[in-house]
């Protein structure tokens, strides 16, 4: 089954592609050939391979049913990270190193898709896996950029050489120079630096010579053109004469184009002042984007350098790029080729170790300063900051481990625990925890190890690995007791309660009870609320409904007191589950609706899909089958976007239940098959609150169809792609409201709802209803939605056609 395929937009480009029309058409023609499945664009750094690949992907995407997906492998540190990178790019939930090829291939087996793999040269060991993927997925096409070929039988190599150069006889006409791709690129970029620059008879020969001296390499040409702001073409050409003499000093085993690119970069570097050169070198330790404040912290000195001025100069020299964020923050980034060059300069200056150490310490501080905000109402802004800095946090972890600083790595892993959990990076977080724990012993750094054990145990629990979670969390609890760290002990006991195989029934020895007592003694309302929430869930699971309700309601009061909207919404959702399990569907509806209202004001809306899914089941039990179909479909769309395969499977089963109650037995059977297959492939169990409802609906559908026909339809569902399922659902949603068993729909309205229905039939607007009945417009809107749901109508205007009792 093909699920979770993320059809995200290809990365936008700030400038149009100059030249490369022939190469673009050649690659496009190759990929459209039936017998060509893999094309590798091969060329040196700075030759424009990525830009060409994106142009091809943009051209081909509209012709392919599933479009194109772009995977940047720059951050992959080893061949083993290629498949997980592809999985993330396709929308799979992060499982870290646990992702295998057989997890990814089902997503692509029926896909009419172009997969673009960028920067493959440092992970060539993964080439056989790409070949295997092509063998298993008959319609898949792959476009790779690399400095070296993959050397697999599927491969068609295409060299990305220099741009077309002007003639070298020194007598070029202006028109002839301007018509060559390299000169056209130079002129375009020079105009971006100085808007009055034009190609003239006076400078055409100099421009032609500049392009030739730079071997037609796009990156070198762009760097040179940026200097037109301060240099004439003649002066620029003279500097190139001096700098390109350095070619003979480069490593002789390197390709000539790499030597000429090094020459261009040496020239650009030499244009900087001493302080700017030092800043450029030191900025090479950053990964991804970074802020001016982070640059100041890593690169600043006691002399209080004007780092911001230096950053501005480097942007002017095209050695840095600046990205302006939506809320006004500027983030800086360095091209990978430039970063490699700057890193070489950093090593040559003997500054690499000290600068990397400063970088690691700065981002350790960033994470630890953010940790307390992740357990507070200020979480959302903090999550956004950590997301922007995540590449640097990764680099900091790698640096600490590479330098044998296991205790500091454990501190960083502990500080990132809640970030990984909220951001869906569970697999990667567990991997870092394992590496840090392997580098640290309890005798060496017990408190630092304790933090990493908490983080690793939490990640293992979220992955469903109860055995590993239990082992790590038990050790964390033991260390916390030994060192009298009551906060960490209370946290460990919460998690321990969820992973014990034989969690005791009600009694004084339950770990959640001890955790709650500790947090109440410590006096932190946020942690007390968390302990109450966990205790309430566990009490419900143990069969103590009233105790669970009481604990959850106390938790909700505390969440509201501290202003944590997300956890308040989650607690309301759990209370809704409890009421739904008791058949109190109106109460469940109210609780879920309150949860959804809170989440609608959050930028991070990861739990909205779960609440919509729960509302779908409420609609099923209230015989509002069209409403159920809408709710489950909305939840499904969000789970697909999130790459949450368990959620997708649950929604497919919910849709099956809704359709089974609406005389759509064959569609229902297909969805039962699809949902069950997906949950099995993900190794996930069905959510307990849904099990009985699904079981009953499945059995009723099987009896109504007969075993043989049911099995046939279920098998067809197991073989469907998610796209085919979604297409069928769109058809069903476009049809008139689904017919349920005959019943008195209007008779289910309450007196207040009947009153509102009569006014709606008379044409009242929500505002008029609010004024007439002395209600808020929000309350009126809730009533209207409930009336439409009970009557199974899609529009308020249809109410006039219904006989409403007085």
Per-chain topology:
Layout lengths: L20 H12 L5 E5 L6 H12 L7 E5 L9 H8 L11 H8 L5 E5 L8 H10 L4 E6 L8 E5 L14 H5 L2 H13 L10 H10 L4 H9 L6 H12 L11 H15 L3 H9 L6 E3 H8 L7 H10 L4 E4 L5 E4 L2 H13 L3 H23 L4 H10 L1 H13 L3 H10 L1 H7 L2 H13 L7 H18 L2 H17 L3 H14 L11 H12 L2 H17 L3 H18 L2 H17 L3 H15 L8 H14 L3 H18 L2 H16 L4 H17 L6 H18 L1 H12 L3 H13 L16 H11 L4 H8 L3 H15 L15
Give an overview in words.
Helices cover 62% and strands 5% of the residues. Helix 5 (127-136) links the parallel strand 3 (114-118) and strand 4 (141-146). The strands form 2 sheets. Strands 2-3-4-1-5 form a 5-stranded parallel β-sheet, with helices on both faces. The longest helix is centred in the middle third of the chain and has 23 residues, at 352-374. The protein is built from 39 helices and 8 strands. Helix 16 crosses helix 18, helix 20 packs parallel to helix 22 (446-463) and helix 22 packs antiparallel against helix 23.
Q: Summarize the amount of helix as a percent range.
A: 55-70%
Distance between the terminal alpha carbons, to the nearest Å? 51 Å
- Low-confidence regions: 242-260, 502-508
What is the 3D form? globular
- Strand % is under 5%
Sheet with the most strands, sense and barrel status: 5 strands, parallel
Largest sheet, spatial ordering of strands: 2-3-4-1-5
Specify the oligomeric state: single chain
Q: What is the tally of beta strands?
A: 8
- Radius of gyration (CA) equals 31 Å
Structural class, from helix and strand content?
mainly alpha
Number of helices: 39
Mean pLDDT: 82
């Amino acid at each position: 089954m093909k699920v979770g395929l993320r059809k995200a937009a290809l990365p936008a480009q700030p400038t149009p592609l100059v030249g490369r029309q022939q190469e673009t058409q050649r690659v496009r023609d190759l990929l459209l050939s039936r017998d060509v499945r893999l094309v590798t664009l091969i060329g040196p750094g700075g030759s424009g391979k990525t830009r060409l690949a994106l142009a091809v992907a943009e051209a081909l995407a509209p012709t392919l049913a599933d479009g194109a997906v772009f995977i940047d492998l720059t951050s992959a540190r080893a061949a083993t990270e290629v498949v997980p990178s592809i999985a993330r790019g396709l929308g799979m939930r992060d499982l870290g190193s646990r992702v295998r090829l057989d997890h990814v291939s089902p997503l692509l087996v029926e896909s009419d898709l172009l997969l673009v793999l960028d920067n493959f040269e440092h992970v060539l060991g993964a080439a056989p896996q790409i070949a295997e993927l092509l063998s298993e997925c008959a319609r898949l096409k792959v476009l790779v950029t690399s400095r070296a070929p993959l050397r697999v039988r599927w491969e068609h190599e295409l060299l990305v050489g220099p741009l077309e150069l002007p003639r070298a006889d020194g007598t070029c006409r202006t028109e002839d120079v301007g018509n060559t791709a390299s000169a056209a690129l130079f002129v375009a970029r020079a105009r971006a630096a100085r808007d009055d620059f034009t190609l003239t008879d006076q400078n055409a020969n100099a421009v032609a010579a500049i392009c030739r001296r730079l071997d037609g390499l796009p990156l070198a040409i762009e760097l040179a053109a940026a200097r037109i702001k301060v240099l004439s073409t003649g002066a620029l050409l003279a500097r190139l004469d001096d700098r390109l003499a350095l070619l003979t000093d480069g490593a002789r085993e390197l390709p000539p184009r790499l030597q000429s690119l090094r020459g261009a970069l040496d020239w650009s570097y030499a244009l900087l002042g001493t302080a700017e050169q030092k800043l450029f070198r030191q900025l090479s330790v950053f990964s991804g984007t970074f802020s001016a404040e982070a640059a100041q912290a890593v690169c600043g000195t006691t002399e209080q350098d004007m780092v911001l001025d230096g950053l501005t100069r480097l942007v002017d020299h095209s050695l840095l790029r600046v990205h302006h964020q939506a809320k006004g923050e500027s983030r800086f980034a360095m091209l990978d080729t430039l970063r490699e060059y700057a890193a070489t300069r950093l090593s040559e200056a003997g500054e690499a170790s000290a600068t990397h150490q400063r970088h690691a310490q700065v981002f350790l501080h960033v994470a630890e300063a953010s940790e307390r905000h992740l357990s507070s109402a200020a979480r959302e802004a903090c999550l956004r900051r950590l997301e922007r800095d995540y590449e640097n946090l990764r680099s900091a972890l790698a640096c600490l481990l590479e330098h044998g600083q296991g205790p500091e790595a454990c501190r960083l892993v502990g500080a990132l625990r809640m970030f990984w959990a909220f951001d869906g990076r569970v697999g990667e977080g567990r991997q870092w925890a394992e590496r840090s724990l392997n580098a640290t012993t309890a005798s060496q750094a017990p408190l630092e190890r304790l933090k990493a054990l908490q983080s690793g145990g939490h990640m293992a629990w979220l992955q469903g690995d109860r055995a590993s979670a239990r082992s790590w969390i038990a050790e964390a609890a033991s260390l916390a007791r030994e060192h009298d760290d009551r906060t960490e002990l209370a946290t460990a006991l919460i998690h321990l309660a969820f992973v014990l195989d034989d969690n005791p029934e009600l009694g004084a020895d339950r770990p959640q009870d001890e955790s709650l007592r500790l947090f109440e003694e410590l006096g932190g309302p946020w942690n007390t609320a968390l302990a109450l929430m966990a205790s309430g869930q566990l009490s419900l699971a143990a069969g103590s409904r009233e105790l669970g309700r009481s604990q959850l309601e106390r938790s909700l009061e505390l969440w509201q007191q501290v202003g944590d909207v997300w956890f308040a919404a989650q607690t309301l959702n759990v209370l809704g589950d409890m009421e739904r399990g008791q058949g109190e569907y109106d109460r469940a509806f109210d609780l879920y609706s309150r949860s959804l209202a809170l989440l609608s004001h959050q930028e991070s809306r990861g739990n909205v899909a779960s609440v919509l899914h729960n509302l779908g089941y409420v609609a099923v039990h209230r015989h509002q089958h069209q409403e159920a179909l809408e709710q489950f479909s909305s939840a499904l769309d969000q789970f697909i976007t999130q790459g949450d395969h368990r959620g997708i499977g649950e929604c497919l089963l919910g849709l099956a239940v809704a359709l089974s109650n609406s005389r759509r037995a064959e569609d229902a059977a297909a969805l039962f098959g699809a949902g069950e297959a997906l949950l099995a492939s993900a190794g996930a169990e069905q959510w307990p609150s849904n099990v009985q409802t699904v079981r009953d609906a499945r059995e009723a559908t099987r009896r109504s169809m007969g075993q043989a026909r049911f099995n046939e339809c279920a098998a067809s569902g197991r073989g469907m792609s998610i796209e085919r399922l979604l297409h069928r659902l769109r058809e069903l949603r476009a049809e008139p409201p689904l017919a349920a068993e005959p019943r008195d729909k209007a008779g289910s309205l309450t007196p207040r709802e009947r009153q509102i229905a009569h006014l709606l039939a008379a044409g009242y607007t929500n505002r008029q209803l609010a004024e007439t009945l002395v209600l808020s417009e929000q309350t009126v809107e809730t009533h209207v939605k409930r009336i439409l749901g009970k009557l199974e109508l899609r529009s308020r205007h249809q109410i006039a056609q219904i006989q409403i009792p007085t």
